[in-house]
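User: Can you help me understand a structure? I only have the sequence.
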Amino acid sequence: MDIVMDLLLMLGGVAVFMFGMKQMSSGLERSAGSRIRNLFKRLDKNRVVNYGTGIVATGLVQSSSATSIMTVGLAHANIVTVKQGSGFILGAKVGTTLTAFLFALSGISKVLTSAMFLPRSRSSV
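Assistant: Let's start by predicting it. Here is the structure, written out as tokens:
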């Protein structure tokens, strides 16, 4: 019985994800003006610019998954082409790698970073 419940939960999660993607792409399609469409048409000519756009977008939102999902929504709404979208997604993955590399170069250790988020005990005097 647990397996059936797990399968139903998984299918429900996929259904909610697909519904959200449809809503996002239809909202993007309605809100995208001619200026945004023309901007993406200009970006289509250069793959390096597409990679750079993916890197910058990932740097701004700090999540390559969010950048990838936004790119899929833009492609579904026919705002970007699949060729552009693949460049954005590859750039997003490179942006994630560069972020980790910059943290490594800065000397911030994982222990130090995680210690910032640990709860501190308060001692009453």
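Now, to help you interpret it: Residues 30 and 36 are 12 Å apart (CA to CA). Helices lie at 2-31, 34-43, 47-61, 64-76, 82-106, 110-115. Let me know which part you'd like to focus on.
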